[in-house]
Specification:
about 70 residues; Ubiquitin-like (UB roll); alpha+beta; four-stranded mixed sheet; 1 helix
């Protein structure tokens, strides 16, 4: 697959780090499985991964966490 952002890079399986800011919560998730562009680094998540990211962020937000760094698999 060619990257839809840079239009030149090839997207391959890999992992990435994502920073999410929602409300008072800032969460850094590391080692998220994704398809990543080898040229610009743009990451693409499948539906299951996106749903899990949203669940992790919601859980942190409900717990009142303001800043957290977490491995995706944890």
């Amino acid at each position: 697959m060619t990257c839809v952002i840079c239009k030149t890079g090839v997207v391959k399986p890999g992992a990435t780090t994502l920073t999410v800011e929602r409300g008072k919560t800032t969460l850094v998730l590391k080692a998220i499985p994704a398809r990543v562009c080898g040229s610009c680094g743009e990451a693409y998540f499948d539906e299951a991964t996106t749903a899990r990211i949203e669940a992790i962020v919601a859980r942190m937000e409900q717990a009142g966490v303001e800043i957290a760094v977490q491995q995706y698999a944890a």
